[in-house]
Structure formats: C-alpha cells, structure tokens
Amino acid sequence: MSLATRLQDLATRVATELKSHKTLINGNAADLAALTTTAKSNLVAAVNEVAASVGSAAGIDDGTTSTTSTWSSSKTASEIGTASTADRARSNHTGTQSADTVVDGTTNKAYTAAEKTKLAGVATAATANATDAALRDRATHTGTQSADTLTDGTTNKAFTAAEKTKLSGIATGATANAADSALRDRSTHTGTQAASTISDFQATVDARISTVLDIAGAPTTLDTLNELAAALGDDANFSATTATALGLRVRVDASQSFTSPQQAQARTNIGAAAAADLTSLTTAVGNTDVDLVAAFEAGLT
Fold it and tell me: What is the pTM of this model?
C-alpha cells in the first residue's frame, strides 16, 4: 500500500475521532465543567451560589457614588439637571462653532462666503484705482504685449511667425546667390558626393562582387563574406569546435564516458536525481507501508 493511501486513511480516522468529540462537547456534555462558578460539581449548589452573589448587592444610596450601590430616580434626575445647566453655560464651552449658526447682531454682523472671498481678493493696504485717463495712458503700462495684437502702421509693419522663421534662416551678412549657371557648374562644387547618387555606380559594383564571389543565388543575409563569417561565429577552427561540442552531447546509439563533473552537470540540466540521492531519500522516508491507523488506535488506549 502506498504512503499516500496510508496518510489518507490516517486523516479519515483522525477526522472521525474529532467529529465524535465535537458532538459530545456541543450537545452531550457529561459534567458541569463549563459552569463559571466554584460549585461545579452540583448544579443546585451552583445556582444557590449565583443567588447569594446577587442578594448581597447594596440597595439605593443617594449619598455615595460607587460600583456597589444605586441612585434613586430623583437623585438621577437632579444630577442630570445640574449637568444640563453647566453644559449650557458658554464659559464651559470648548471646540469650535460653525459660522453658519451665527446671526447679525446690533453692532457686529455676520458675512457670507462670497463676501469673504471678495475681501480675500483685496490686497492689504489697498487704495482706490487711479483715474480712467491714467489707466489708459500707455506711459503708465507695465509688462508685455502680445505681437498678435499689433497691426501695421504707416512706417513700421507687423510680421507673421512664418516671416520671422524665414528671416531667422538667413545668415547674418548674407548676399544674393551667384548666377544659376555658376551654381550648376561642377567646377564650383565643394564637399563630397555619395556613391549611391552616381548613376549605375552601385549596380556595377554589386555585379562585379557577385561575379567574383559567385554568390548570386545566396540569401541576402549570407551574400557577403562578413555575413558568412558571422554565421560561423567568426571561428577559424569551426570544424574542430563543432566536433568537440558534438562529442559532449549524450548519444542514444553508442556508449560514452563522462567525467563526474560532466555527469553532475548533465543531471542538473535535465533535472535528474543521482542514484545516491534516491538511496538517501528512501532511507529518509523509511517504510511507506506502515499502518498509521493502527498506530493511532493504539495511542487512544
């Protein structure tokens, strides 16, 4: 029988035993152990003990305040009235009061949130504005003015963003271009020219290279010497390297000899356990066919 089956049988037997105890505790208590009195051995004695405890409580006593006495209703009402008067006295108030509950008085007035916002917008020590004439006088203006608000004058003109960009692109001290004929004359050209812009140059060169290397039918990723070298890992001893690598692979058609480190690495790569590991595991687990239910039953006696 497997270890899993043995453990399942044990779990079933333990659950059965626990279920019987749970039923006994919840509905079939055989004694008075759950009582919270000192006389647990006799139900009548336990009830008398509770009655005596209730009967020993002190009666009504308006003259004292304790956890063992009770006030009369009149004493209670008097204390509540005294507390209510003290609660209403403003001198005893703490905390804050919402402005919404304040109403206008004879001298002082409450003001609204809108009025408070308006007051907050007035600078400290603010004075009345200047006259309209002074406010309209450009000599008193500060800050900047958007060019979009300017219009052409008689002498000076406003210009657009595109016109300003065009002006920025003209070099300082620029002069008029040379004649078109001079600009088209190759003898006046400077700098270099890309070979790709020369008619038939690239096609002629590619044809010559293809003829020399005889790679006209090769894919585009393997039609140059550099691509071929990269495909071989830039390894001048590619053949020997490949043979060595193949010799270190596990074969299925012939026997091989590996060193202990190579064997360990192979097991790690495929997640296999060594024979010694299996022996250790078997020793650690022990006999998996032990009757655990029988052991449990023996423990109950």
Answer: 0.23
